[in-house]
Give the backbone structure.
Amino acid sequence: MLRASTIVRSSLFVHRHTSLSSKTFISNVIKIPCRHLTTSTPPPPPPPTSNTSQHHESSSSSSSSSSSPSSPKPLPNKSRKWKYLLGAAIILLPSIYIYDYMSAPTHATDELEDTATLYREKSTKEIAFSWAILKICSINFIVEYGPPLLEWAEQQGLAAPAHWFIKHTFFKNFVAGETLQECATNADELAKEGMGVVFDYSVEAGSGSKEAFDSVADEIKKTIIVGKNAKLKPFACLKVSGLTSFDLLDRLSVLIQHSVAVPLPSTSSPDKNQTSTEQTIKKRILPPTKILAKAPSSLSPSELVEFNDLLSRLDSICQTAKENNIPILFDAEQTYYQPAIDLLALYFCSLYNRDGPLVYNTYQMYLKDGPERLKTDLANAKAYGYHLGIKLVRGAYMVTERQRAQQKNYSDPISATINETHANYAEGVKWALTHLDHAGVMIASHNEDTITSSISQMEELKIDPKNPNVQFAQLYGMGDHLSLLCVHHGLRVFKYVPYGPVELVTPYLIRRMQENRGFLGSTSSKERHLLW
């Protein structure tokens, strides 16, 4: 399979090993006179001359005109423009390649450098498309101004063309389809490569009617039922914000953090010297059923109805997961909704994880308190006799988290440096792998060091690569080289395969763009290097 990089490298080789100037080099490649490259307008037609001089001119320039039958025809303006573009491409493509090559991480395992094996199932067209999208997502201007530009387009009645563009670019790379059927087809293709899937109906409603939320719950249950017949047993996942309003999640989170009177182990009231985070962690030591029972007493009648509807939807989903033996993941969201989401996830863990991890909560390790929350929940699970399902991620809400912290004038909940986040994640992996007697873990990461070190830890701890309580995961359209590395080691690896209507999964796509810019150790530059 011939790659674009092979052509570009060949051109670079010729250029480097000749004495031609750049202008002459380009001129020889595309066969146009160098003088045409130094002016912004086409050269004037030559004055009439004899047939002899015209013939002599044509031997050195393809743009000369002649009345002689043997003379070449004048170069049309359209053709000339295309040749100009080709010349520009020959200049720009090597520059882009050199930039990607120099910016890519220099360390890599031999297995990752074996790109012929890694991408043997992909066509040249697929590789080029993936490289282009990942490259676009690394451009700061697009990441910064893309979301507001999309919002402006929707306000101006241009939603249809905007969504058409998204569907044929970012959506195509990061989303498995608009329907469950399209998603299932992609799942079958991934199974051929030894990878399972996490079915993800990527709708973040946050507003809407009871019927709309019920519809999302029904769709999630369909993913579970479809997953029962998949070639490799998948996971399903849910976003709580797709099942209820943001207002209710915000209200519950406030109650859990501040208003609900929860008796602590040593005292009936919080210690004034403790931080809010420390108080929240202590509350998590109690059975989630006891904490949850306190919340409804502080809700309005309408909020209580909405809260009970949410519990009913979640219980129905978890019951469907149990009946079909398909694990269900509670996705993490913004910290201002997370206390409610955590509490709900732990509540259903305590109900459905008595015999093993079926319900998983997600831990965002870019948060300063990430490791302590994980350790507390593990201790809680062991003390009250259930398994804790753990999905470890770094996090994908940095932009909105820091904006809100600044607007509301509270401390940034995210670790100050990338190295602190890496340390948190490494601690979480170590803690989870050493507590598999009452836990299951999904190591969801696009960081090469994380994957390789986790594999080493499993070997040191003599954990079977096929242990059903350990799995790795990457997002669809990202980190394929790491997924294939896990397959090579015989590990259980899953790709998050999101699906849904373009207009409803746009928030998901925006976060993927932000991740690919390089935040939190994303290896998008390395992946572009390997694709190239």
Observations:
- The mean pLDDT is 74.
- The first helix runs from residue 4 to 16.
